[in-house]
Task: structure prediction
Amino acid sequence: MKLRKYPPLPQSARPVLWLVRGLSSLAMILGVYLAVQLASRGDTLSAILFLAISIAFVLATWMNPLSPLLWVGIGAMVTVLVILDPGVISITLAITAAVMFWIRGMKQGSPVDAASLRPIEPDSVMNGAQPFVTELLESGWRQAGAYAFDSRRKAVTVSVLVHPNLDRHAEITDIVFSIESRFQDSRILISNSSGRTAWPPSYLTNDVFGASPAELAEAHQRALDLLAEYDLEPQHVLEHTIVSEAMASEMETIEWSQENPSGGLFNFGGGADPLDDSPASKERIEAWLESSIEYQVEP
Result:
């Protein structure tokens, strides 16, 4: 519940993204070669700097991008520079890496003041979130309450709605829309349509970037059907406690992110794909089930 919404990655663009990441890896290899050449000439300081910049660039490329399609232009530019004039690649890598690390800092969202988490009026809806809330209400969902917290940039209102079956709830702000179901052992399935962050091990992510409320609800149901094959049934949602439980989960995520900063920094692959019956999805589910859940915050 902490990321700004960015353009979704079309499935057809994923091969392009991997191609660009491959090109960035090639650029790093060439950068390492040039660093070795500089070192052999006695210019040790320049070699170390060149090597550090090259590694930083490839890490920036493989981290969550602002928009993966942006790497098409960046990858092509860097590749051409490597071929035509390796001498200027260090400047290109330095500028690109700096810009992308800055973009990633923006993407991670503003730091949240955990002490500011608080319940608010039950019918509260953040400006800009009304269309999401209205669509769910018209589909039979009910608003169970709301809570708020302060980020560095603004105060955020989170509307909490429950499904008629009382086996899932939604949390909605102006830029974030997610649906969650809770299971035994404090495990949580979260379907998210707008942005991604590093989640504690208790979360199984089902990311469907750019999905409408109806599309995300369908994706969440498909994920629940898939988990049912593992004899997993979501727990019953209690409307009078779901807001406090949602706040506890928010606190858990904040504290876990603070204690595990590398969990978000080295988040390779640009986020988890939607859950389906593919081998990759089943491997993620099995890893989630086998993981030990040690970090919990009581509501």
